[in-house]
């Protein structure tokens, strides 16, 4: 039996997809990369914002066609949209044979078997369940870079966010489970491990007497042979403590990179968002990080057009972006999500205004990002090679400053062949907007 798998949404969802793929392989299914050849199709969906929901629905509809025109016998929808719209998906799209919730993906093989016997299945466990599956994940990220999901759910309840309703309250995976997972990934050839969760900075508080255990977890991960880069994503700024800063500073394997989503820079908007920081506190933590780790690359995300955002609020966040000179920045327009407090707030902003404000923030950042790229010219940095451009002697890679998928690349000229996953020293010779160009430095010893 053949399976075709589509994984949408974030890297946390991707980890679930890789676990499901591992379970299916262990049950004898063969993965194919063309839906036309699939007996079973699984779509692991996202339901975060309007565009993500649209993409999920479009993908399910496209795959539903396969049941009429190709050999597909079973269409299964998993993940966040399945969790949120379990009944609607089954009733509105008759080709869907099963829906599986966000805490039930470990049952994928049983569900497939039931569907093949002709049943329609809804598989949902308690939203607070904590699947820990002892299976070798199938990596979809090239084999040299992967994600370690250290916790499930979220307790922050930002007023715009639906995720606690899709993924439950915050639960950490035990440290032993995570170390075992990381060792298995390293044994499969992973060099770069990206630490993810809805929020990584409070890791362990639910398991270890309220103690924040991310620094300890990072230290233990650094001892794993084979891992070269460990990168921490999704840090809530107010939860960053001295111990974490010192571990990032002192452990050579930890990338001098932090992703700290701040969402806004106006105190009034931050308060309505349910965020727990003020602009002054954000300035203070960013200053502290840069003081202790001068070469740290900081990524953040912002939301433009939150309900009630005034032109003055917008100007304030614009100035904040100019002052902070983030290394990386993503800006989303606010998406009104049914079932969240923000959707009920007065003074929802017109789409056109949201887009204008997003564009203004991105334009301000573009100038900063191009300057930051220029500042890299002449420096020598380690680059993780990810592949080779077709028909050219140019390789593509990333520095510690670039997280997979979201940041820039380095185009690398090399005299000798390299393979994906090699980490080489590169002298940066040019900057092209968000990307860099450089030559491999060969170090010869007598
Ligand atoms: Fe989407 Fe669910 Fe991730 S809503 S962003 S796939 S946690």
Automatic annotation (TrEMBL):
What EC number is given for this enzyme?
2.8.4.4
What GO molecular function terms would the record report? protein methylthiotransferase activity
The cofactor binding remark recorded in the entry reads: Binds 2 [4Fe-4S] clusters. One cluster is coordinated with 3 cysteines and an exchangeable S-adenosyl-L-methionine.
Looking up Pfam families in the UniProt record yields: Radical_SAM (PF04055), TRAM_2 (PF18693), UPF0004 (PF00919)
Residues that bind [4Fe-4S] cluster 1: 10, 46, 80
Task: Provide the cofactor list for this protein.
Answer: [4Fe-4S] cluster
> Which positions fall inside the MTTase N-terminal domain?
1-117
Q: What is this protein called?
A: Ribosomal protein uS12 methylthiotransferase RimO
At the highest ranks, the source species' classification is: Bacteria, Bacillati, Bacillota, Clostridia, Lachnospirales
């Amino acid at each position: 039996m053949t399976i075709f798998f589509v994984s949408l949404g974030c890297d946390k969802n991707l980890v679930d997809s890789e676990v499901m793929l591992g379970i299916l392989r262990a049950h004898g299914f063969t993965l194919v990369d063309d839906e036309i050849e699939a007996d079973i199709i699984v779509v692991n969906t996202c339901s975060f914002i309007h565009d993500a929901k649209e993409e999920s629905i479009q993908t399910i509809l496209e795959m539903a066609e396969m049941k009429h025109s190709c050999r597909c016998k079973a269409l299964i929808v998993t993940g966040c949209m399945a969790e949120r719209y379990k009944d609607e998906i089954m009733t509105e799209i008759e080709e869907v044979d099963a829906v599986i919730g966000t805490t039930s993906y470990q049952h994928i093989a049983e569900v497939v078997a039931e569907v093949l016997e002709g049943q329609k299945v809804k598989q949902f466990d308690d939203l607070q369940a904590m699947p820990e599956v002892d299976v070798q994940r199938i990596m979809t990220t090239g084999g040299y870079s992967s994600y370690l999901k250290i916790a499930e759910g979220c307790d922050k309840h930002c007023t715009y966010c639906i995720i606690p309703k899709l993924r439950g309250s915050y639960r950490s995976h035990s440290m032993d489970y995570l170390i075992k997972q990381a060792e298995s990934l390293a044994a499969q050839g992973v060099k770069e491990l990206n630490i993810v969760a809805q929020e990584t900075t409070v890791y362990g508080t639910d398991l270890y007497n309220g103690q924040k255990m991310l620094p300890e977890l990072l230290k233990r991960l650094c001892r794993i042979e084979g891992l070269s880069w460990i990168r921490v994503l999704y840090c809530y700024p107010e939860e960053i403590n001295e111990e974490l800063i010192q571990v990032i500073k002192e452990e050579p394997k930890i990338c001098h990179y932090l992703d700290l989503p701040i969402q806004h820079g106006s105190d009034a908007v931050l308060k309505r968002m349910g965020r727990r920081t003020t602009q002054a506190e954000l300035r203070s933590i960013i200053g502290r990080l840069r003081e202790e780790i001068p070469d740290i690359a900081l990524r953040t995300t912002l939301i433009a057009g939150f309900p009630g955002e005034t032109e003055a609020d917008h100007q304030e966040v614009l100035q904040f972006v100019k002052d902070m000179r983030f290394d990386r920045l993503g800006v989303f327009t606010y998406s009104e999500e049914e079932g969240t407090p923000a959707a009920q707030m007065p003074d929802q902003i017109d789409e056109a205004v949201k887009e204008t404000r997003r564009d203004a923030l991105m334009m301000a950042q573009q100038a900063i990002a191009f300057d930051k790229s220029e500042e890299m010219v002449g420096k020598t940095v380690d680059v993780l090679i990810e592949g080779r451009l077709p028909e050219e002697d140019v390789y593509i890679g990333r520095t510690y400053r670039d997280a997979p998928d979201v940041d820039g690349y380095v185009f690398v000229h090399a005299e000798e062949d390299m393979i994906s996953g090699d980490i080489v020293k590169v002298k940066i010779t040019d900057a092209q907007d968000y990307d860099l160009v450089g030559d491999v430095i060969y170090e010869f010893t007598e």
